[in-house]
Structure formats: structure tokens, C-alpha cells
Amino acid sequence: MECEICDDGEGGCVFPYYGVAPHTHRPGPMEGSTLVLEKCEWPDNFAEDPEAPGLGTYTNCPLCGKGAAAIGEGREQG
């Protein structure tokens, strides 16, 4: 069984998954409110896509570690 963060609702793990880099939202309407965090603020479990800046793979669960941690090895941080 997966932990409370990575459980996909069917007993599997949601990691790895592709998505927007770690981010916050400005107040107001959601559309156009995304602010990508500085790379130095990204967690170790996020690997940026070299062909699509601001997007990438969340490699493994930050709580229990399940997923594909090896995908994130060698990620450049700035």
C-alpha cells in the first residue's frame, strides 16, 4: 500500500509524473496566475525537462520515497 501522498486511489503510486515545475499562484483568477519557483527552491524529487523549461518529472514521493528516484539524478540546480 502506498502512503497518503502517493496513493493513486487504486493502490498504486502516482510517481513518477510529468507536470509544471514547483509553483505558486498569484491571487485572483487561476488562469495566468502561475509563478514558477526559483530552481534553488525546487525539491530533490523534481527533474526539469531540458527541452521544456518550467516543466518536468516529479520522480518519487517526498514522504515515502516510492517512484523512480533515478530519473532525477544529475539534475542541474541553479
Low-confidence parts lasting 5 or more residues at pLDDT below 50? 70-78
Shape: globular
Order of helices and strands: EEEEE
Mean pLDDT: 85
SS class: mainly beta
C-alpha end-to-end distance: 35 Å
Q: Residue share in helices?
A: under 10%
Largest sheet: 3 strands, antiparallel
Number of strands: 5
The gyration radius over C-alpha positions equals 14 Å
Strand residues, percent: 15-25%
Strand order of the largest sheet: 1-5-4
Figure out the total of helices.
0
Give an overview of the whole structure.
The chain has 78 residues and is mainly β. It is built from no helices and five strands. A three-stranded antiparallel sheet has the order 1-5-4, with no helix packed on it. The protein starts with 16 loop residues before the first strand and ends in a 20-residue tail after the last strand.
Please sum up the structure shown:
Helix content is 0%, strand content 22%. The chain has 78 residues and is mostly beta strands.
Question: What are its keywords?
Answer:
single chain; disordered C terminus; two-stranded antiparallel sheet; globular; three-stranded antiparallel beta sheet; 5 strands; 78 residues; mainly beta
Write the layout of secondary structure elements.
Layout: E1 17-20, E2 23-25, E3 34-36, E4 46-48, E5 55-58
Antiparallel strand pairs: 1-5, 2-3, 4-5
